[in-house]
Amino acid sequence: MKRISVCIPCYNEEENVEKIYLLVKNELEKLEKYDYEIIFEDNCSKDNTRQVLRKIAEENKRVRLIFNTKNFGAMKNSGYIMFQATGDAIIGMPCDLQTPVDLIPRYIELWEQGNQVVLGQIMQSHESHIMFHIRTLYYKIISWCSDNKELMHVTGCGLFDRRAIKLIESLNEPEPNFRYLITELGLKVVLIPYEQQKRQAGKSSYNFKRYFNQALHTLISTSRVPLQFATMAGIILSIISFIMGMIYLIYKIIYWDFFEIGMAPVLIGVFFWGAFQLFFIGILGQYIGEILTRVTKRPLVVEEERINFPDNLDSKEKVDEDGK
Q: What's the whole-model pTM score?
């Protein structure tokens, strides 16, 4: 019997974890020819998320829990939980209930047709229209900069064949970004359009700083265009500066006693070149930081506790895992 794993990373979602558990369980129990497991990974929540999860895990042994020692960030948390799944098909599902749970049967149907990856694509959103258009612009920028095809309005939520997950895991990415890796690796992917719902409860932990950092990390890790742009801009501005310098020199030689350069061009040149150099030193710093992150090879997360995984169950529960 094939197994379906549903992975739900969470952080401060005490009002949502039980709701999404019941919805996911209901969908999976309709699929009678499949075994299933539901994995929650808590990224060191500050509310009562863990207490709610413990209660759920006591009632259903198919619910597995991972508790992290600290908040390692959404991308690391989302990647690590997928690598811990044991299913033939592994579904990533956000805990905020903005992605419809009833997409699960459709994911599995398309997976059974031979697709390695089945992802949801947001066609319309109940969130802020301004935010939606900002994201659209962001996807277009990444698409223009990246050598690989960009999947517009795809958050990475969907189904991955176990072989695809193992391939991604073997890359040892410091922050595995599934939605970009699948196009880079050439995995067969199909998209399911859906309407993103408004968050029902709680507040997203993502703010402008986190969005900006993620966008910058994605740009640096998927593209060399900023470096190429810096090189081309440096060449062009060097040529322009050389031409301007020659013009000033010729004017000075011809009108030696009358031509005064003055401080304005000097100050403008100093500030312009200073800003130009600092900007591209910052870009170089981002790439060096990416190299450092990859070289140090630290773990994605550090576990504090795991519950209901096979190595935590006694022998009787290992033999008969009936979910009661």
A: 0.74
